[in-house]
Design brief:
The complex is a heterodimer.
Chain A lengths: L5 E12 L2 E12 L3 E5 L6 H8 L7 E6 L2 E3 L4 H6 L2 E4 L11 H5 L1 H6 L12 H10 L15 H12 L6 E5 L7 H16 L3 E5 L3 H7 L2 E6 L2 E8 L5 H9 L16 E8 L9 E6 L3 E5 L6 H8 L8 E4 L2 E3 L4 H6 L2 E4 L3 H5 L6 H6 L3 H4 E2 L2 E2 L1 H14 L16 H13 L6 E5 L7 H16 L3 E6 L2 H7 L2 E6 L2 E7 L4 H9 L5
Parallel strand pairs in A: 3-8, 3-9, 6-7, 7-8, 13-20, 13-21, 16-19, 19-20
Antiparallel strand pairs in A: 1-2, 1-4, 4-5, 9-10, 11-12, 11-14, 14-15, 17-18, 21-22
Chain B lengths: L7 H16 L6 H26 L7 H19 L1 H25 L4 H20 L4 E2 L4 H8 L1 E2 L2 E2 H19 L1 H11 L1 H6 L4 H27 L1 E2 L7 H12 L10 H20 L6 H17 L2 H12 L1
Antiparallel strand pairs in B: 1-4, 2-3
Helix pairs in contact in B: 1-12, 2-7, 2-10, 2-11, 2-12, 3-4, 3-5, 3-10, 4-5, 4-10, 6-10, 7-8, 8-10, 11-12, 11-13, 12-13
Classes of the chains: A alpha/beta, B mainly alpha.
Chain lengths: ~500, ~325
């Protein structure tokens, strides 16, 4: 294909946040008149790359070319005025303002003086843009009175107020129903027919196959499939590219199944109210809960740990508890590692030891008073076992690397008095190889000691080395249960749903 | 949290003390120092309560109004109940307001700023309504004036009470289970919930204990002014917040040591005293206090944070 076809070319893009490397060497080629899908699991660097394209983040290294000329954006506004227009998953419109005022927002933001920009765009032009996206609404109507799908189209119409060269659609259908999504896709296709390039980010394969012409897949901050024709790749191939090649070490086979420990009945995801999902985890068993992002696997796991309210019945070792009653679940011996380490797990300002002992305070206190020596005696061996580095239990949790912070959360689980079950969400996301193997060993040891363990992760390699049994979640329900010796291909097709009825 | 080296505020406090000794006439006399400590005592007791709320990630604006309400209630019921029960009734009011704040913040999940502002106005209005807007004098009695004027082993009762309050706060923060959980809730309430902590209950108890500290301060202050005043200590919440901020407690919660509170309080008390001694208008107390808060919070930000901030605003 001739180079003049390229609307936007990004090469060698790298970006590091603190100790985590979000992008190492990413490449993206968007061609005029084509819709380009960007795929990648959580943490692959997709959102960082999008932020760099739309000017929200400055890359550490790499080069951006827009229509063959080098480009660098200091802000989102600069990128927009260069013709790269983002359509966000969280609508970036103003519900209290009229459609007309919303359509004028770019013109206003571009005004040079304090007052110079305070003019609405010509109504006939505004109507022209609305007509182009197939919307027939009153310009004076407050945006809040429109449906979500209509608002998304207003956002696209607003993109027309500029010389839009690249349209960036970041999960635009997340809040839309099927009809609204189809309407949006028709508009995108029409815009592309006029020479606009579109970048489309979605987790839904159906939509990607319906809309996109080309595809780029990111994994671990690198481009692993570069601007390929999408119809040349099957869903399994794409999923495989996203999740990575396998390590074939498998855990030891379980001889006999012990008694059930953690039992959940009647989980109902948001979209699927009818019929419930049942999950049972037995003593000594590691159940791998697999699901792509948005499949509901993490929600199901959180529900099992009592961290997520909802319908259904839960029990651990015969004692029932109410979904969402995390305190009772912990008291009954269910330890939990949430998916988002920083937001939900870590007490960044407190010491490493305190981060761990929080689950054991009931045992460390007598009549409400803590005994400091007991705390160190009980917690520090756990930290040594997990090879906390540096070995400074008094240091603030924020000063440790991601892998060592994750060790603290695992240690917190192990310190829970009366521990019977562990529910671990993405236990090694963003964790270095050494910490990962320490954490995996700790999980295996815990199961060998008779605990019921459920690991929910989008990392297929992790599942293959840990789980005794796989449960695959798709569309908020159990799609398949696979035995330990299931081949990788079977898992992949269950994950992507290509063989589902 | 164990403090291995003295908090930065200790040096500031010591520096200010030396400066005052050198430059402020009549500062370094026994009588004046005792006076500073007496003023600091009430501030210190209430600041201990404020520190708990700040460690929880909250803030208490209602302390001043609840102290005023306590004084009014005390003086109102005094003729029928006698001085001791009267003072206790005033203290109970303060604890009750703390409990209401804790319930609204912890159980209802309302923002602390709004909750304590609301109870501030309600307490203030109630106090004014009870006495018709005018201060009401208390009949003098020995028991009534003992908290403010009494001495135990030659030591003023108020200063002794402040020392006990600091000890109590230290035991709570460093050695009790509930105190430990305040740090967890303040550092990350969501993580605390997911770790199985009853965040609502811990928060409620924190505000109640904070109210109990403030109640002790209210009793001493009421005893000192010997009257019920609906506008008794309007700046008390701000002075206690300032003391905590100057001491280095981050208002985002999760951190704090009793020594930081003590040195913060002493700094505030010395500033106020110096303004009076060098014959500046009393209004300058607030101006200087505001400056001190801004300066100390600015200096406590480490350089990395300052640079990040500069980078962000530049972009």
């Amino acid at each position: 294909m001739p180079a003049s076809d390229e609307a936007l070319l990004a090469t060698g893009i790298a970006k590091t946040y603190g100790a985590t490397c979000a992008l190492r060497d990413a490449r993206l080629t968007l061609r005029r008149g084509r819709v380009h899908a960007l795929l990648g699991e959580n943490g692959a660097g997709k959102s960082t790359l999008v932020k760099i394209l739309v000017g929200a983040v400055t890359p550490d290294a790499g080069r951006l070319d827009l229509d063959g000329a080098a480009a660098a954006f200091g802000s989102v506004t600069q990128a927009i005025h260069a013709g790269i227009v983002p359509i966000h998953q969280h609508l970036s419109l103003f519900p209290e303002l009229s459609v007309h005022e919303n359509l004028s927002a770019f013109a206003l933001a571009g005004g040079s003086g304090l007052w110079a920009g305070w003019r609405l765009v010509d109504p006939s032009r505004a109507r022209g843009w609305l007509a182009e996206v197939g919307l027939d609404v009153d310009l004076a109507a407050p945006l809040g009175t429109l449906s979500l799908g209509e608002r998304q189209l207003v956002e696209v119409a607003r993109a027309l107020s500029l010389d839009c060269r690249v349209l960036v659609l970041d999960e635009p259908t997340a809040a839309l129903n099927a009809g609204e999504a189809d309407r949006l896709f028709a508009v995108v296709r029409r815009l592309c027919a006029n020479g606009t390039a579109a970048l489309f980010i979605s987790h839904r394969f159906d939509e990607i196959e319906a809309l996109a012409d080309d595809v780029t897949v990111l994994r671990d901050g690198r481009t692993v499939i570069d601007a390929a024709l999408i119809r040349r790749h099957s869903r399994e191939e794409l999923t495989h590219a996203m999740l990575g090649a396998g390590v074939e070490a498998r855990p030891e086979r379980l001889c006999a199944r012990a008694e059930p420990v953690l039992v959940g009945r009647g989980f109902a995801g948001r979209r699927d109210a009818s019929g419930g999902t049942d999950v049972t985890v037995h003593a000594g068993e590691i159940v791998g809960l697999a699901g792509l992002i948005g499949s509901g696997a993490l929600t199901l796991a959180a529900w099992l740990a009592g961290a997520q309210a909802g319908a259904g019945e839960l029990s651990v070792a015969g004692h029932g508890f109410i979904p969402g009653d995390r305190r009772r679940a912990a008291a009954l011996g269910i330890a939990y590692v949430p998916a988002d380490r920083h937001a939900e797990g870590l007490f960044a300002r407190l010491s490493a030891r305190r981060n761990v002992s929080v689950s054991a305070l009931g045992h460390l206190a007598r009549l409400g008073w803590l005994r400091a020596s007991q705390e160190a005696e009980r917690i520090d061996p756990l930290l040594r076992r997990l090879k906390l580095h540096p070995a400074q239990p008094e240091a603030e949790a924020a000063t440790f690397s991601g892998g060592n912070q994750q060790k603290l959360l695992i240690a917190r689980c192990l310190a829970l008095p009366g521990l019977k079950a562990m529910v671990l969400l993405e236990p090694t996301r963003g964790v270095d190889v050494a910490a990962r193997s320490v954490i995996h060993d700790a999980i295996r040891e815990a199961a060998a000691a008779g605990l019921a363990v459920l690991v929910a992760t989008s990392d297929l390699d992790e599942l293959m080395v840990l789980a005794h049994r796989y449960l695959v979640v798709r569309d908020n329900r159990l799609a398949a249960e696979l035995p330990q010796d299931a081949p990788r291909a079977a898992l992949l097709s269950a994950l992507s749903g290509s063989m589902a009825a | 949290m164990r403090i291995k080296r003295p908090p930065a505020v200790a040096l500031v406090c010591l520096g200010l003390f030396l400066l005052c000794c050198l430059l402020v006439p009549r500062f370094a006399t026994f009588g004046n120092i005792e006076n500073v400590l007496r003023v600091a005592a009430i501030l210190c007791i209430v600041a201990c309560g404020q520190a708990i709320v700040i460690i929880l990630g909250g803030i208490e604006f209602s302390f001043g109004a609840s102290v005023a309400l306590a004084s009014v209630v005390t003086v109102t019921v005094l003729p029928t109940t006698g001085p001791i029960a009267g003072l206790a009734a005033g203290g109970a009011c303060v604890i009750g307001i703390g409990a209401a704040n804790g319930w609204l913040v912890g159980r209802m999940g309302l923002p602390p700023v709004i909750v304590t502002l609301g109870t501030l106005m309600m307490a203030s209005g109630t106090a004014a309504w009870l006495v018709g807007g005018l201060p009401l004098d208390a009949p003098p009695s020995a028991a009534f004036s003992w908290p403010a004027r009494g001495r135990v082993l030659g030591m003023p009762v108020s200063i002794l009470a402040a020392m006990l309050a600091c000890l109590a706060l230290h035991l709570l923060l460093a050695h009790s289970r509930i105190g430990r959980l305040w740090y967890h809730v303040g550092a990350n309430p969501l993580a605390a919930r997911l770790a199985g902590i009853d965040v609502a209950r811990i928060t409620l108890l924190g505000y109640v204990v904070a109210g109990a500290f403030c109640a002790v301060g209210a009793i001493i202050l009421t005893s000192r002014v010997a009257s019920g005043q609906p506008a008794l200590a309007p700046n008390l919440p701000f002075e206690t917040i300032a003391a905590c901020a100057i001491g280095g407690l981050p208002l985002s919660g999760g951190r704090g040591h009793v020594l930081q509170v003590v040195f913060g309080v002493l700094t505030v008390a010395m500033l106020n005293n110096a303004v009076v001694l060098i014959n500046l208008p009393v209004a300058w107390q607030l101006v200087l206090l505001g400056l001190a808060v801004l300066a100390s919070v600015g200096l406590q930000k480490d350089w990395a944070a300052l640079k990040r901030l500069a980078g962000r605003t530049a972009r």
